[in-house]
């Protein structure tokens, strides 16, 4: 049965992606995510919708290397502390911080605290379904 309502204890239980893995950005560059997790499954119905909505979490020391999106993205920090960089602007952020990344502007996230760093995110799916955004590189 799908889950629609999440307590903090539940949404903090993410699938673990603690090993380094490489992703392909919309510009074709490769970037990594370390000590990062997300919801175990996409929210029901979201796979056919043209918007992304979810929660990302980073263990202490976790990073999301610099990358860009084809559409605007919005982030709202709900737990922990970290550094977020959008273009040339870099700031320490914590609960209540709101971050906007315009299309095509690289951004970076790092957990600098002693607890999980988590944020809600909202944005659009890539215009090009073959863009490879947030997908591991295809191996031949």
Structure keywords:
single chain; 140 residues; mainly beta; Jelly Rolls; 1 helix; disordered C terminus
Present the secondary structure layout:
Layout: H1 8-11, E1 15-17, E2 21-24, E3 30-38, E4 51-67, E5 73-79, E6 82-86, E7 89-93, E8 98-101, E9 107-111, E10 117-124
Antiparallel strand pairs: 1-3, 2-3, 3-4, 4-9, 4-10, 5-8, 5-10, 6-7, 6-9
Characterise this structure:
This protein is mainly β and 140 residues long. The chain has a single domain, classed as Jelly Rolls. Helix content is 3%, strand content 48%. It is built from one helix and ten strands. It has one helix spanning 8-11, and strands at 15-17, 21-24, 30-38, 51-67, 73-79, 82-86, 89-93, 98-101, 107-111, 117-124. Strands 1, 2, 3, 4, 5, 6, 7, 8, 9 and 10 form a ten-stranded antiparallel β-sheet that branches. A hairpin with a 2-residue loop joins β6 and β7 (89-93). The radius of gyration is 14 Å and the shape is globular. The protein starts with 7 loop residues before the first helix and ends in a 16-residue tail after the last strand. Residues 135-140 have low confidence and may be disordered.
What is the compact description of this entry?
By secondary structure, this protein is mainly β. It contains one helix and ten strands.
